[in-house]
Design a protein that fits this description.
single chain; 217 residues; mainly beta; Pectate Lyase C-like; 2 helices
């Protein structure tokens, strides 16, 4: 039975029903702002620009290749079936953003701030979340295998039925974070990081060496 306490209430994006169809086939310039539009079924490649803003937007079936949007500002934005693998989104701000069925392998979101963000059925393997600042964020049914959350700040963050195998969380305080529904084999943490973390009885066994426990059968 699903533990409903794991799923935090996330404010959804406020996106108008009527949106203009937009294209990003031209070079995006620093500090460009795009609002109230939908971008779909296209390839966006070889784009580099800082401080770009997207507000009240939908990206659907979009693949990003060789794209760097550092200091990106995303507010009220939804990504559906997109490929953001290896994008540089470091030091960005995401507020009321949904990523559904997206591929984010190797995506760099280090030093970004996330507020009311949902990752649903996403593949974030090898993604960089170092020094991430998260509040009201859900990772649902997602793969974060070998991702890096080094010294991330996690407040009211849910990891629900997700794969955290070999995920690095050294220096990340997990007090109050519920990992009981996740795969944790090889999770990179210290005993201090785990203080106050919520795990299942089966998971305690996998952490026994780390915690200095001797399991007697």
């Amino acid at each position: 039975m699903e533990d409903k306490t794991l799923r935090l209430k996330i404010l959804p994006p406020n996106i108008p029903k009527e949106l203009d169809k937009l294209s990003l086939d031209k070079a995006i310039q620093p500090e460009n702002c795009f609002t109230r539009g939908i971008i779909s079924n296209c390839l966006i490649e070889n784009q580099t620009a800082d401080h770009v803003t997207f507000k009240q937007m939908i990206f659907k079936n979009v693949t990003f290749i060789e794209v760097s949007f550092k200091y990106l500002d995303l507010t009220d934005v939804r990504f559906e079936n997109c490929d953001l693998s290896n994008m540089d989104l470091s030091e960005s701000v995401l507020h009321k953003v949904e990523m559904e069925n997206c591929k984010m392998v190797g995506t760099n979101m280090s030093e970004s701030a996330l507020r009311n963000v949902l990752f649903d059925n996403c593949n974030g393997s090898y993604a960089l979340f170092r020094f991430l600042d998260c509040k009201q964020v859900n990772f649902n049914n997602s793969s974060l295998c070998s991702a890096d959350f080094y010294k991330a700040k996690l407040i009211k963050v849910g990891f629900n039925n997700s794969n955290l195998q070999r995920t690095g969380m050294s220096g990340t305080k997990l007090k109050g974070i519920d990992l009981s529904s996740c795969k944790l084999d090889g999770l990179g943490v210290t005993a201090n990081d785990l203080d106050g973390c919520i795990v299942s009885p089966e998971q305690v066994i996998s952490f026994s060496n780390l915690l200095g426990l001797i399991i007697k059968s």
